[in-house]
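User: Some background: our group keeps a shared notebook of sequences we're curious about, and every so often someone picks one and asks for a predicted structure to add to the entry. Today it's my turn. The entry only has the sequence so far, pasted here. Could you supply the structure so I can complete it?
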Amino acid sequence: MRLNNIDLSRVQATVEAVRQNPDQARRPQRVEVDWNFAEGEPQMRATVTVEGRAHTLEADSPPFLGGAGLRPGPIPYCLFAFASCFAGSFAGAAAELGVRLTRLRVAAETVVDFTRPLGLGDNPPAEGLTFIVDAETDGDPARLEEVRELAYRRCPAVYCITNPVPLKIELRRG
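Assistant: Of course. Here's the predicted structure to add to the notebook entry:
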């Protein structure tokens, strides 16, 4: 059964598999970004494989940071990642609760302070993050708050934003 473009039978099969073997919930993820030194081309490129298909992602810094603005920079990609993760969590939570959505749009917004990247201060680079969720259902609209709460509790992006995630940087020379 599908609801909100979510294959509930596949999700349920995954839940059962993880109940049987919790290691099934751990799925390594990796993105390798190559810096491009060629003038007139986007500065960053990565190829990611999803379900056996390769997809190329490109990014370029905005001109005020020395790029040409040929592609979105890292910050819009970051906001897209956060918003799309929450949108997926919201749609999934709604489907799990039997709430059919007729509209879902998630905007992620922040104000970025570039004094730290420019070496001009130690201000936090972001003044917080806001998700604006525009959702409609053909059922009881009060259920959308229940969906929002469940999505908030389960969304990996929300967890990463609201809890420190250890960062390790390995420098390889050669």
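Suggested note for the entry: The radius of gyration is 19 Å. Residues 90 and 149 are 9 Å apart (CA to CA).
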